Amino acid sequence: MQYKDYYKILGVERSATQDEIKKAYRRLARKYHPDVSKEPNAEERFKEINEAHEVLQDPQKRAAYDRLGSGWQSGQEFRPPPGWDRGFEFTGGGFGGAGPSSFSDFFESLFGNGSPFGADFRTRRSSGKPLHGADHRARIQVTLEEAYHGAVRPVQLERPELDRNGHVLTRTHTLKVRIPAGITAGQQIRLPGQGSAGPTGGERGDLYLEVEIAPHPLFHLDGRDIILDLPLAPWEAALGAKVAVPTLGGTVEARIPAGAHSGQRLRLRGRGLPGNPPGDQYLVLQISTPPADTDAKRKLYRDMAKAMPFNPRAHLGV
Q1: Average of per-residue pLDDT across 14-32
Q2: Can you tell me the distance from the alpha carbon of 104 to that of 102, in angstroms, rounded to the nearest whole number?
Q3: How far apart, in Å, are the Cα atoms of 263 and each of 208, 224, 266, 311?
Q4: Which of 85, 102, 117 is at the close of a domain?
């Protein structure tokens, strides 16, 4: 997928006002409209111009696009940086007057239906009542510990706005958010009344925070289940043992059965994320070999090889 420089496509500076973007679009749209243009690449250029305008004429999409930075080159191989839209508050709005099929893979990766910007949060109406304000949405990252225990903490969000000169800027604001215990990636936290004001005196919209779980140095998640790679010494695996195991709820003792092998999974029931039912914690056993870094240790390995003839590749027929 290739990066698209929307400012270059419209022939404007990154500091251009919304008025300047509108004028540039109208000029280019007249020049390259397929019904009237004599240019050989008119249809392709017209699509590019429409796509660039779709992003840059929308203060929210433009502010999000600007987050990618100015160091990209047109045609450069592109993948959205992880978390590029995190903490960015917006109302959605869909694709304007064009459908997603009219736009490139680059646009789709940033603003398509699989992204938060693809969601169409419209102003809600109740029969006989003033209009309800538009809902807002943002993505936030929480730690695995916060997802397990729950927490109350400040969350900083950026909300794009236009200044009086038509330049896009972002205003940072902070909210205190309660993170419920047991929340999982993709779930939403609703903050009533934190969206847009009602346009006719109606109630404010809501703010929905979509949760992603930050990577953890020890654990990783599978739904509500928690996975931990557990190293074992060879004698612990061969003879069985009781070993201390970290969990998000504290250290517990796990029984390792005799004859355990690498890749074997043991379950700690109910030690995953809280819920109804709660998740489990799975221990994936990994046998670690002590280093043979002294003469005495090397002799022990040679003695063991003589005392216990063993071919771990016998099943391969070699």
Answers
A1: 92
A2: 7
A3: 40, 21, 10, 18
A4: 117
Highest mean pLDDT among 70-84, 135-149, 155-169: 135-149
Domain that holds residue 273: 219-307
CATH (domain of 26): 1.10.287.110
Q: What is the CATH number for 259? A: 2.60.260.20
Position of tokens 């709820």? 249
Quote the CA–CA distance of 34 and 222 in Å, as a whole number. 50
Structure tokens at 160: 């794009």
pLDDT the model gives residue 293:
94
Residue 196 has pLDDT above 80, yes or no: yes
| Pairwise CA distance, residues 131 & 123, whole Å | 7
Q: Are 51 and 104 in contact (CB under 8 A)?
A: yes
- Angle in degrees, 0-180, between the axes of helices 42-56 and 18-32, rounded to the nearest 10: 160
Asked whether residue 271 is domain-assigned, the answer is yes
Q: Are 179 and 150 in contact (CB under 8 A)?
A: yes
The confidence score (pLDDT) of residue 97 equals: 37
In a domain? residue 84: no
Are the C-beta atoms of residues 283 and 262 closer than 8 Å to each other? no
Q: Is 36 exposed, middle or buried (0-12, 13-18, 19+ CB in 10 A)?
A: exposed
Q: How many CA atoms lie within 13 A of 83 on its CB side?
A: 9
Number of structural domains found in the chain: 2
| 155 assigned to some structural domain | no
For residue 162, is it within any domain? no
As a whole number, mean pLDDT of residues 117-127 equals 52
140 secondary structure, DSSP code: E
Q: Which residue has the tokens 């109606």?
A: 202
DSSP β-ladder status, 207-213 and 188-191: antiparallel
Q: Which of 128, 133, 302, 153 is nearest to 214 (CA)?
A: 153
